[in-house]
Amino acid sequence: MNPVTSLLSAIARITLSGTLSVSLALGSTVALAAPPAEGTGGSTPDGTDTGATQEEKDEAESLSEKAIAEFSAKNYSGAVELFQKAYEIDPQPNYLFNIGRVYEEAGELEKAVEYYAKFVKQPGVDLDSREIALERLRVLRAIVQETQEPKDEPKDEPKDEPKEVVPAQPQPQPVDTESQRKRKIMRGVGFGLVGAGAGSLIAAAVVGSLAQGDRDKAFDLDEADNLAARRYFIEKSQTKALTADILYGVGGALLLTGVVLVAVGYSKPKTQRVALTPSFGPAGGSVELRLRF
Length: 293
What we know:
Layout: H1 3-24, H2 54-72, H3 76-89, H4 93-106, H5 109-121, H6 127-147, H7 177-220, H8 227-266, E1 273-281, E2 284-292
Antiparallel strand pairs: 1-2
């Protein structure tokens, strides 16, 4: 390209950019971006069809004129609402730019950045308008970034001094006095039954020995001369032997029951129940022990 031509083009661009930038900074007297001139048939400046009919286009332009009036009167919320309605009817990119411009004037810079960004992404936006919007984006984003409140930094909290760790003392378990009393009684009964069982076993041994002695006497006698005496000693021996058997059974049962009761009485308390059921019959007596855990 000719250097002179390049220089003239640069001067023209700077002049155009400077003029538009000055107009954007004039406040409520600034001229907003205008929609396409009549006769474009609802198209954007590069000829892209917006899909709006001529009637919709006229309605959108009417709303745009009202929005400009609201903007001049500093009714920024009303101006934004009218421009948004116009864009919904006829999606011209200029309406997005105008919304961003209104937000910028109202001091809502983040909203302004949002709509300028939408504007530059729209098809049908000429390069000069897109460049102006990009310049506004750079400036406003920098302002937003600089004016954002810094995040609260965590304050240095005073460190707690290490406390001396005292080992927890073992807590005494609650004493079940009723359970202790029952186990004490159970041990006493158990020792009594052990003594009674041992006595019964000793008595059984003595009676058994006597029964054996009577039996021996019966067989030592002469059967021809002492038949009656022999029969007497045999019957006596059988009676003593039966008594010894009963004593052995009762003594063993008592001894076993006593040992169990003593063992349970000295054991740790658990959910348990002991039941003794004595029974007697023609052949002797017995004691049934039931231990339920």
